[in-house]
Structures are given as structure tokens and as C-alpha cells.
Write a structure and sequence with these properties.
The strands form three sheets. The chain has an eight-stranded parallel β-barrel with strand order 1-2-3-6-7-10-11-12, surrounded by five helices. A two-stranded antiparallel sheet has the order 4-5. The protein has a two-stranded antiparallel sheet with strand order 8-9. The protein has 316 residues and is α/β, with parallel strands linked by helices. The N and C termini lie far apart (42 Å). It has a single domain, classed as NADP-dependent oxidoreductase domain (TIM Barrel), CATH 3.20.20.100. This is NADP-dependent oxidoreductase domain protein. It comes from Deinococcus maricopensis (strain DSM 21211 / LMG 22137 / NRRL B-23946 / LB-34).
Amino acid sequence: MFAPARLGLGLAALGRPGYINLGHHEDLHGARHPEGLQARTLEVLDAAYSAGIRDFDAARSYGHAEAFLHAWLQQRAPQDVHISSKWGYTYVADWQVTAEQHEVKDHSVNTFERQWPETRAQLGRWLRTYLIHSVTPDSPALHDPALQIRLARLREEGVTPGLSLSGPHQGDALARALDIHIEGQPLFGAVQATWNLLEPSAGPQLQAARDQGWHVMIKEALANGRLGPRGYGPHRAALQALADRHDATLDAVALAAALAQPFADVVLSGAATTEHVVSNARALHVNLSPADLQELLSLAETPAAYWAARAHLPWN
């Protein structure tokens, strides 16, 4: 039997001055310069560790996230953490929130060979999982034998190769990834996917991955803030009513729904403040009934509608 899902912390909203979470500009309270963001990140990491969180996720494209996480790991030297990171996007915004482009996507072997040493230098012996960032069905990661062979060699260094998913066809991309084998062995052993009450469509494929022994991480469980206190839309009233019945906050209920999924190993919080960490951690004490979960899942949008709305969230 699989263990219950754990709460983790992703650093997408902490490693760079801009992100697409609702109200992100308010959360940073002026701490947008690198020194201020590093101090904030260390505070949030400490709060998360104190709350029992042991899974931490970064990416090459999250600005200085890997460097900030490196500083915390060096200072605290924890022995019981699981660190994951991602390659395949390059951060190009030059610390400007209003940049026309924030990330450049490239899943080529050349990008992997450039970014892998950078990640290894920052996260070293703590790194356990290395994911291709935002794989879609047309990604070279699913079709390029040379890249796949190179990724398979990560296991020789004690790192599990995996992929993160994005877009309305997450399930299709994951189904293809599950079929990729190198020398008779599955290439990937981990997946990070968007799953939330508004976009649960990848659930069956995530369950298939879990059944095959993959490590399954859920990202964007709060739909970039749409399922939190700043959320909006037709789902808001129903979510609030259920939260009131449980004497819980909106974010705690939404995270609790993700934690209740049988395929989830880790559900990532996207906390940008210590207050977020405390509020998100309350999800561990929200016990949703099957009827509650059925009611919540009725809030789902179509994948096309969800991802179209996400694409219009402004960097702030």
C-alpha cells in the first residue's frame, strides 16, 4: 500500500521577481532584488521545514531558485530532504517583471548538457530527481533517442530522470512517456503535473504512473491562486461553502483535495511567504469525505478553458 501524500514546497514564486500567481506583487512586499528574495526564500524554507515539509522543488528557469536553495542546504545541512529540479527552460527576463519574455524553452541535448552541470553544481548530493520542464506531446524528450539515452545515464549518478507536464494534453504526453524504455528499462521514474480542482484531467495517467512505481508530484494545486483567497470565478462560492463547513481556508481545502488523490506522492505548495506556508500546511488536517471530493471535482473546467485562462494570467 502506498503512503499518504506529503506536502512539498516549489520555488517558482521565490527565485525571481515576477510570476503569474494572483497577487504575487503584494506577496513580495518590495523584496524583489536578489538579496531580498534570497532572504525571503530562506525564511520560507525554514518555515516549511519547521512545518514538516521535506520535499523541495526548483528549476533552472526559476531565476536564482537553485542558488537560494543551495544556500539554505549549505547552512542547514538537512539529512532528510528530497530535492528535485528541472531543466529545459532558460530564464531570460534579466530580473525585469515587465519583460516581454521570461523563459525560453528548448528540450535539446545541447540544453541538457549546459544546464545539468549548472544544477549539479548548485544542488550536488541533495538532488534526487531531475525533470524535463513542461513536456508536451511534441517535445523532443518523447522522440529523440540521443536525448533519451543521455537522460538514462542520470541513474548512474544516483538521480532519477523524470518530466514535468504542461498544457491541455498532459495525459497524452504522460501516456507516451510511460511507454519509453532504454535497454529494456523504463526511462523515467518521476512526473510532476498540474492537477487541481479546476484541471484534474491528467488523473488517470498519473494513477498509471503511480501504479508503475513512479514518483508523482502535483504542482499548481491552487491554480496559480485561483483556488486561494484571491480567487475568482464561478467555482468560488461552492469552494467557500465547503471551506466554511470544515472551518478551513480555501487554500487548505484545495490542497487537501490534491493530497487525497491516490496517485499523489507529493503536493507542492507555491508559498511565497511564511504566512502562506502556515495556511497551506493546514491542509494536512482537513479530512474531506468522498462526498466532499465529488462535490469539489464538479468544479472542473475543460482542459482547453483552464489552460486558456492560465495563459492570460499576467506576470506580476
